[in-house]
Write a structure and sequence with these properties.
Elements lengths: L13 H5 L5 H38 L4 E6 L2 E7 H26 L1 E2 L16 H13 L4 E2 L3 H6 L2 H27 L7 H4 L1
Parallel strand pairs: 3-4
Antiparallel strand pairs: 1-2
Length: 194
């Protein structure tokens, strides 16, 4: 290839010319963090904010409809349907805030740490420069990992985000079940909904 001998590092060196001093150990975690941060900003947050606005509008629309509250599937005290929906609004607000709290760690990029975190074979200053450019291109305040060894070896930021998404899923499940139960009763029960 290119006039060189097969297996030779001349004229094309695998690290210097092909990988450009990079490793999958730092580029993959960095790319994963960037992709997830973009998805959260561009898709998840707008969808949740839209849901929150819809629930707020419904809460206001239903503010004068009194219903019987239930606890442990038993009748309890009266409340308005609007009050019940205001609880759903707060659940979504809490979910958005929970997810936002995970973002600072997700924004840490270990780029430039190369294979094991030492930065061996990477051009001097590559990591911070790359992070600055990625932050400018995306409009997301990415930072360079404070410890590249941790940044390439650990994926706690994903676990943290997943925990917040798990809480969101539980809230959405509860809201959907509550709304489903609103449609159940002796005359117009779940059989009609399906």
């Amino acid at each position: 290839m290119l006039g060189g001998e097969l297996g030779s590092k001349n004229p094309v060196h695998p690290n210097d010319h092909v990988n450009m001093g990079q490793s999958t150990n730092d580029t993959f975690p960095s790319a994963m963090n960037i992709a997830l941060a973009l998805e959260i900003r561009d898709r998840l947050f707008p969808a949740l904010e839209n849901l929150q606005k819809s629930l707020e509008a419904k809460s206001n629309e239903l503010k004068d409809i009194v219903k019987i509250g239930r606890t442990h599937t038993q009748d309890a005290a009266p409340l308005t349907l609007g009050q019940e929906f205001s609880g759903y609004v707060q659940q979504i607000k809490n979910a958005i805030e929970r997810i936002r709290l995970t973002l600072p760690h997700l924004y840490e990029l270990p780029i430039g740490g190369t294979a094991v975190g030492t930065g061996l074979t990477a051009h001097k200053g590559l990591g911070p420069k790359t992070v600055k450019i990625v932050a400018e291109l995306t409009g997301i305040p990415f930072t360079h990992s404070p410890n590249l060894f941790e940044g390439i070896a650990n994926h706690d930021s994903f676990v943290e985000v997943h925990g917040a998404l798990n809480a969101l899923a539980a809230s959405l499940f509860k809201i959907s079940n509550d709304i489903r139960f609103l449609g159940s009763g002796p005359r117009y029960g779940q059989k009609v909904q399906g």
